[in-house]
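The methods section describes the discrete structure representation at length, but only in general terms. What matters is that the chain and its backbone geometry are given together, residue for residue. Nothing conveys this as quickly as seeing an actual entry. For illustration, here is how one protein appears when written out as sequence plus structure tokens:
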Amino acid sequence: MRSIFKSITAGAFIAAATLAFFGDRSCQVAIADPAPTLQIAVIAKSTVNAYWKAVEAGAKKAGAEFNVKILWDGPDAETNHSQQANMVDNMANKGVNGIVLAPTNVNALVRPVESAVAKGIPVVLIDSTLNSDKPVSVVATDNYAAGKQAAEALIAAMGSTHKHGGKVIMLRFLEGSGSTEAREKGFADRISQEPGLSLSDTAYTKGGGSTTDAADTADALLRRVTSDGTLQVDGIFASNQPTALGMLAKLDQFRAQGVNIDAQYVGFDAHKVLLKGIRDGKIAALVVQDPMTMGYLGVKTMVQVLKGEKVDAKIATATATVTKQNMDDPEIKQVTGE
């Protein structure tokens, strides 16, 4: 074969080689997908923690799958409502085909969202709700149910022995954050229904909602319920990833300072530090979401809207309760990313 190829021209060589390799299948050679023609803005509550990076990964996976260009953005803090509002305005003025938004606040983003919709740009919400009926769909955890799920996990971990009168405390996230407000209400409602338990103290995270801000707020909350060298509560809940990390850091610090802590602790969302906390026996359980799927479904839903397909007004994403007993199960590892 080599001697035959040497005797033909370069052009003939290419044609002959193609025919020799593909035979009659040459017409089946894959043609690269055309450049994306649709642009979808995905605007998160922030871009700095692991939760939102997982949302980003899911959104970009959907973008690649459906051949749409993803314009990813988000404010520098989850309290920077005006910055996020400007991002929505800028994307609308840029003429994107659709906006997928995780609103930082249930009220602060109403004006820019309704302005975008008025310009003919559909909006799909992810993670959190908004006090507006203009978004075409909401892709999110059922946060009220997830809060009750966290309460059930804490009740199970506490058992029937309550040294400190069944007192429970909760570290909240930012006031006005739709997802965590609903989650915290679900938790509080379920605790109030359990005989012998009471939600004795809570605190909203101060500042911008970072892990450091949450730790500072946790410090003040824990000091309020500590006396005689003992934490005088039976149960603790932190309602999202920053608060869970901040609370864990402060509980470690209090222990190192000699404070006696026998309270059961339940957090929310997956993070390698929190998962290690379960393995080390410092956290009884985590209720975890699936942020990658949330980001993926947000973009997928927007693609369906842009194609003129009917979509559900609410699309719920799953949660799982992770404990030391089940955290190595394959289906749990798939959600936690371990």
